[in-house]
Design brief:
This protein has helices at about 10-15, 40-45, 55-60, and strands spanning about 15, 20-25, 45-50. By secondary structure, the chain is α+β, with helices and mostly antiparallel strands. The protein has a single domain (about 10-60), classed as Factor Xa Inhibitor, CATH 4.10.410. It has a three-stranded antiparallel sheet with strand order 1-2-3. Strand 1 and strand 2 (about 20-25) form a beta hairpin. It is elongated and about 50 Å long. The mean pLDDT is about 95.
């Protein structure tokens, strides 16, 4: 039986917390920052927890 390889692009973007949740960073925080409000940029700096519906799909990609 073959093994499933880790999807390296996903492994760099997502990590698993001690509780088993998937942690990610927000997008849209690289350029055109002059257009975005200070509040929006501040909230994009923080990490986020992936939704429960997307967790199984990402977990199979990064499988730790």
């Amino acid at each position: 039986m073959g093994k499933i390889k880790t999807h390296k692009a996903s492994a760099k973007r997502f990590s698993i917390t001690a509780g088993g949740k998937i942690k990610m960073n927000h997008s849209q925080h690289r350029h055109n920052l002059g257009i975005k409000t200070q509040k929006r940029k501040r909230n994009l700096r923080k990490g986020a927890i992936l939704s429960k519906s997307m967790t199984p799909a990402i977990r199979t990609l990064i499988q730790k």
